Every structure is written in C-alpha cells, then in structure tokens.
Amino acid sequence: MNLPNRITLARLVLSFGLFAILMLLDSQDYRNRLWAGIAFGVFVIVAATDALDGYLARKYDLVSDFGRIADPFVDKISVCGAFVFFCASATVMDLVPAWIVVVIIAREFLVTALRGFVESQGIPFGADQLGKIKMIVQCVTISCILAYFTLIPGTEWARVTLIALVYGTAALTVISGISYVQKATRYIKGRV
To answer: Which positions ≥6 away from 174 have C-beta within 8 Å?
Structure first.
C-alpha cells in the first residue's frame, strides 16, 4: 500500500463524501451556496489528486497492479457518479440530460471491456492522450456545474455556457470511445 495507492483510496472516500453532499444539496434545491462551495472544493481535490497519484507512481516507480485497477475505477466512480447525481436532480437535470449520462457511462463500460480483453491477450492497453483529455474535460465540466451554484447562480449566460460545455463533453466522450475501439481493433487484427 504505497503512497499513490493511498491517495487513490482517499479519492474514493472523498468521492462518497461528495455524493453525500450532492444528496444534501438536492434536498435543498442547490440553493445552499455554502454546501455547493464545499462540493466544488471536494471535487477539485478529487480531480487534483487523480493527477497527483499517477505522477507519483510514475516518478518514483511505484506503479502497481492494484493502482492500475483502482485508479481508473475511482475515476469512473467519481465522474460517472457526479453526472448521475446531476441528471437525477430536479435542479440540475436541465443542464445534464439523462441520455448524456448514459453515453458517458456506456463509453466507460465499453473501454473497460476492450481494455480487459486486449490486456488478456498480453498487450498493454493503457489510457491514451484523447482519453486523458476526455477525463480533464469531464472534470472541468463537473467543476463548472458546481461553481455555477456556488458563484454565479441564476446567470443565464453561464447556464447556456454550461449546457454547451456538457454537450461538448458528451461529444468528446464519444470521440474518445471511437478512438479506443479503433485502437483495440488494430491490436486484435495484428494478433489474428
């Protein structure tokens, strides 16, 4: 249980803390700016420590099998979980339609299945640049949604900007998924 793995587990705990705050916010119609600010802060810490644990693992050669499994798992829990809470909230559902959340989650299932299959053939199948950019954009989108309720609630231009960001995130998620399918197809054809 090295430092990067401990950070990953701390991110998981913080993610569940974030979900508890999002449930509280939903019961208060997201108008409690203090709790919205706390949710924003917690998510920023979750996103920042995602970069930190990977950096430490690579820099100090602490990459482990546990970390290779747990890190993407916690990423999916934190990001997909936040989007699920958003689409289930009466206050936020107009910003995050349920079908977009289904697209995001479907892409994660697909890439996980492809990764599992390709790696079972003895071929490394880690995250590519587009996948990392997708993760950053998703984290920025979640942070912006939480900031909207903390800093600039009720501003129409911010709401329209957020909707555009959510749709852009969905498009990038699909593009990233297609990229992984193409990459897996090349690996599989190369082995046949």
So the answer is: 103, 107
Task: Annotate 25-44 with DSSP letters as a single string.
Answer: HHHTTT--HHHHHHHHHHHH
Cα separation, 141 vs 42, whole angstroms:
15
CA distance 132 to 142: 16
Does the pTM surpass 0.70? The reply is yes
- Cα dihedral: 37, 31, 143, 151 (round 10): -70
Q: Is the Cβ–Cβ distance between 36 and 149 less than 8 Å? A: yes
Distances (CA, A) of 74 to 12, 46, 156: 6, 10, 33
Enumerate domains of the chain plus CATH numbers: 3-191 (1.20.120.1760)
Tokens of 121: 């053939």
Q: Convert the pLDDT of each residue in 126-163 to its tens digit.
A: 888 999 999 999 999 999 999 887 776 667 888 899 99
Q: Count other Cβ atoms within 10 Å, centred on residue 139.
A: 22
